[in-house]
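Tokens in:
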């Protein structure tokens, strides 16, 4: 069926946020007497939201304190080095111009998703944007995607979900939409294929060409 809507993951798919997240997480760890990790190591840690990130890096009794410090630091540092990957603005603009609905579903805290989108994509209109928020289970649970799809009058066969981790691919599979992977983000192609990616793209131009071929 013809493509009507495309939903994107944010961190590692639309935006290269790795360094800012890593720096804030390392700041939190060091503030609470723990050792930092190399920025690259965060490619495996990021993807399930900030609480899960801190749970992966320290004992459970420290999670709340670490999370508070992480959020406070990230609130002032989220755009220090982060930026859209090459070709992303063009891709989003093209889809929007062609009448395809474009949305974002992230496990990043909802407040930061809003700030990032306003800052990095100020001229684009999205059909829905959501980050991790209370009351809605985060990806790979499909509830967040279903909530965004509500009222759009599209069926799952008319929707793609694009992401860079197994969490994103599982979300798409569970929601019954087409799972599309990107290899420029935080994980390897193999992980995406193993978790259901129908295609994995190496640059935004290739993804754009595929999506346009689906119209
Ligand atoms: O910040 C995270 O943990 C993940 O965010 P994402 O879902 O946009 O990749």
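Residues out:
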């Amino acid at each position: 069926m013809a493509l009507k809507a495309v939903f994107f993951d944010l961190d590692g798919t639309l935006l290269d946020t790795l360094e800012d997240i890593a720096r804030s997480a390392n700041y939190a760890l060091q503030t609470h007497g723990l050792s930092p990790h190399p920025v690259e190591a965060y490619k495996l840690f990021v993807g399930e939201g900030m609480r899960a990130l801190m749970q992966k890096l320290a004992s459970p009794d420290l999670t709340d304190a670490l999370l508070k410090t992480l959020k406070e630091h990230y609130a002032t540092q989220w755009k220090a080095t982060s930026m859209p990957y090459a070709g992303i603005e063009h891709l989003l603009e093209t889809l929007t111009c062609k009448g395809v609905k474009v949305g974002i579903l992230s496990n990043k805290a909802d407040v930061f998703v809003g700030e990032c989108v306003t800052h990095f994509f100020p001229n684009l209109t999205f059909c829905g944007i959501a980050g991790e928020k209370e009351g809605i289970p985060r990806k790979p649970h499909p509830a967040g995607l279903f909530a965004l799809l509500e009222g759009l009058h599209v069926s799952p066969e008319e929707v793609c979900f694009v992401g860079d981790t197994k969490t994103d691919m599982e979300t798409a599979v569970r929601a019954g939409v087409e799972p599309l992977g990107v290899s420029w983000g935080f994980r390897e192609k193999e992980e995406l294929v193993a978790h259901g990616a129908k295609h994995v793209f190496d640059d935004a131009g290739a993804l754009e060409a595929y999506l346009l071929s689906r119209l």
